[in-house]
Amino acid sequence: MKARPFACLIGSVFLAVGCSSDSGDGGDAGTVTEAPPPAANATLTGTVAYRQRIALPPGAVVTVRLEDISLADVKAKLLAEQVIESGAQVPVPFELNYDPTAVDPRHRYAVRAEIRVEDELWFTTTRVNPVLNDAGTGPVDLMLDMVRR
Questions:
Q1: pLDDT tens digit sequence for 20-59
Q2: Average pLDDT in the chain
Q3: 44, 60, 63, 119: least CB-packed within 10 angstroms?
Q4: Which residues are bridge partners to 93 per DSSP?
Q5: Which of 89, 85, 65 is nearest to 77 (CA)?
Q6: Is residue 28 a contact partner of residue 22, using CB atoms and an 8 Å limit?
């Protein structure tokens, strides 16, 4: 006979929990019952540098790109880009904000960079710098090679 009051108590608890949850079908608009979803952006950080002992002149522009390099013989798909118009010297820090939902776990991603002065290419990456699925989310230290002579 004691089992029946216990079963009623358990049933009441389940009923109370079920009634108190927000089903999202028009409850009180002024009440927030759950945290908002996280932002759709993620950030990949790092630095851009080169080995030569020369200073960048004023007006140097550093461009860093996050690209999908999965498909051969096709231009890489751009996921994020940062253009830094800087008189600062290396290492130049960068932050690439990208949408993590655009990252396909089956694809390969890389970061590349270049430095231009008055639209003339001075430095560029010459190696693949894998990120995300291949190598994690950074920080990424890019070493550029000189192309200007």
A1: 444 445 444 444 445 445 555 889 999 999 999 988 888 8
A2: 79
A3: 119
A4: 47
A5: 65
A6: no
